[in-house]
Amino acid sequence: TEKEATLAIIKPDGVLGNHTDAIKATILQSGFKISREKIIQLDKDSASSFYAEHSTKRFFDSLVKYVTSGPVLVMVLEKENAISDWRALIGPTDGSKAKITHPNSIRAMCGTDVEKNCIHGSDSPQSAQREISFFFDTSTSQWFALPLQSPIL
Ligand code: DAT
Ligand code: MG
Q1: Ligand 2 midpoint to CA 28 (Å)
Q2: Residues 81-128: pLDDT tens digits?
Q3: Active site residue 120
Q4: Can you tell me the mean pLDDT for 24-31?
Q5: Binding site for ATP, residues?
Q6: Any ligand 1 atom below 6 A from CB of 146
């Protein structure tokens, strides 16, 4: 089986709530390698572009406000079956429901509700490819083997 790469984002409530260390420990304990990472502040245009698939939803403006409300930690995670395994580890979208139905998930640990759910994961190979190249230079074929782009926290 081939290694896969997926995109993870610790959203502003996760970063500002000091959940970064616990989330990264869970990521590593679950067998993922963190191959790229950076902390950035999204602006309205970049957040709108990242979440373009949701642009017609009622919650879109609120979502953009939330993800631009503070710094985010963006990471590329690698392992076999990374995309679906990462989705399973973060748990369901609604952080308040995750606490009941998926108590060991990351959204149960640090999510608040259906909007403020503290973490992102790509939902398919297509979105993983789009989202990784949205944040990182993937122009070299061996991009996944490059060292960390920047030291973090
Ligand atoms: P996920 O992040 O689990 O892939 P999604 O792609 O359906 O969920 O939505 C993207 C983000 O938008 C989600 O993480 C939080 C926000 N969101 C989704 N549904 C929402 C809703 N009903 N009300 C408010 N925010 C919502
Ligand atoms: Mg999604």
Answers
A1: 22
A2: 999 999 999 999 999 999 999 999 999 999 999 999 999 999 999 999
A3: yes
A4: 98
A5: 11, 59, 87, 93, 107, 117
A6: no
Looking at the chain, the whole-number percentage of residues with pLDDT higher than 70 is: 91
Pick from 49, 64, 93 the residue to mutate for probing ligand 1's pocket: most ligand atoms within 8 Å of its CB. Answer: 93
What spacing in Å lies between the alpha carbon of 147 and ligand 2's midpoint? 27
pLDDT digits (tens, 9 = 90+) for 38-91: 999 999 999 999 999 999 999 999 999 999 999 999 999 999 999 999 999 999
This complex has an ipTM of 0.98
**Residue 16 CB contacts under 8 Å (≥ 6 apart), including other chains:** 70, 71
Residue ranges of alpha helices (H) inside the chain are 12-16, 20-29, 44-50, 60-67, 82-90, 95-101, 106-110, 125-135
Cα distance between residue 150 and residue 87, in whole Å: 25
Which tokens is 141 given? 């074929």
Interior CA angle at 69 toward 6 and 96, to 5°? 65
CB under 5 Å of ion ligand 2: residues = 123
In the chain, what are the domain boundaries?
3-136
CATH superfamily of 3-136: Nucleoside diphosphate kinase-like domain (3.30.70.141)
